[in-house]
Design goal:
Helix content is about 55%, strand content about 15%. The protein is built from eleven helices and eight strands.
């Protein structure tokens, strides 16, 4: 399994890895090497703020002669990137209730299905809750994932208060406390304020009805949106507590720098990456292994 993921990731980041490899092979580095590095990082979606910070630090080290060769640069960049992603690692084993949030189309419903599969593989029974009552199709979409993964399915009617569907989900969970309750939510309502209010209401019901449950909120971010995805992340980060990120559609981008931008700006770990549309196309994200693979170090 691990080799498969590594192969998938390697093919995703090949372009970045090979551009970096060229720089790291240089026997001696100069200002233009750092300029090239800056360009590669920006093109890889590392974001201007994070890239600038990295380049300033590396330039200082080069001026002090702490970095003279491409190999030095590789080690220094590895240390900086590792420090960036060295967040409290995401723990998936102890969770009772998983709330999925994110803007429309970012991959919440598919992630709910893939996570149901993952936890079933880990031996947990899963209850999928259709907390997106905004569109009738959203319920049908999640129902298909529930059937595919043999999960219990809880849904209400179109337009029903999602908090009441969550309530029904919590009742089912109380009957099977060892199971994992995964709640899919809407990505779009009439306004963003409504959306955030709805999420808060769901969270309030959860803490009232299951005060001792381990509740985790994950934000789905579409990696293909690159820089634009930071705005959506900001919107949720400011309004609600987030425990981690699911970076979706990684198969559609040859970039990986977004991982560092997220770590630097939001200081929350990427918990999973999703790289396709089948049940197995979601895996836990190992930030340290990712840095090593990306830099070939
Ligand atoms: N290639 C690829 N497609 C994905 C991935 N994740 C989701 N998709 C597709 O992206 C589209 C949107 O995914 P959904 O899971 O419906 O997104 P959502 O956040 O639930 O969307 P709303 O319910 O509209 O808010 C679907 O066509 C998915 O099949 C991924 O990792 N890779
Ligand atoms: Mg959905």
């Amino acid at each position: 399994m691990f080799n498969f993921i590594k192969k998938t990731l390697t093919s995703i980041y090949q372009k970045v890895t090979s551009s970096l490899g060229r720089l790291f092979a240089k026997p001696i580095i100069d200002t233009s090497t750092l300029e090239e590095l800056e360009q590669i990082l920006l093109e890889a979606d590392t974001g201007t703020q994070t890239t600038k910070k990295l380049i300033v630090t590396l330039t200082k080290q080069a001026q002090n002669n702490a970095i003279t060769t491409g190999a030095d640069l590789q080690q220094a960049l590895k240390a900086e990137l590792t420090a960036l992603v060295n967040l409290q690692p995401y723990q998936e084993d102890t969770i009772d209730i998983l709330l999925l949030v994110g803007i429309n189309g970012s991959g919440k419903t598919s992630a709910a299905g893939k996570l149901a599969h993952r936890y079933a593989q880990l031996g947990r029974s899963v209850i999928l809750v259709a907390g997106d009552t905004f569109r009738a199709a959203a319920v049908d979409q999640l129902r298909i994932w529930a059937e595919r993964t043999n999960s219990t399915f809880i849904a209400g009617k179109e337009g029903q208060d999602p908090a009441s569907v969550v309530y029904a989900g919590l009742e089912a969970h109380a009957q099977q406390p060892e199971s994992l309750l995964i709640i899919d939510t809407a990505g779009r309502l009439q306004t963003k304020v409504n959306l955030m209010r709805e999420l808060e209401k769901m969270r309030a019901i959860i803490s009232k009805k299951a005060p001792n449950a381990q509740v985790t909120t994950l934000l789905t971010i579409d990696a293909m949106l690159g820089q634009n995805s930071f705005d959506q992340a900001k919107l949720f980060h400011e309004s609600t507590h987030l425990d981690g990120i699911i970076l979706t559609k990684m198969d559609g981008t040859g970039k990986g720098g977004i991982v560092f931008a997220i770590a630097q700006i939001f200081a929350i770990p990427v918990a999973y990456i999703s790289f396709g549309e089948s049940v197995t196309d979601l895996q836990p994200f190992d930030a340290h292994a990712f840095v090593s693979d990306l830099l070939g170090a």
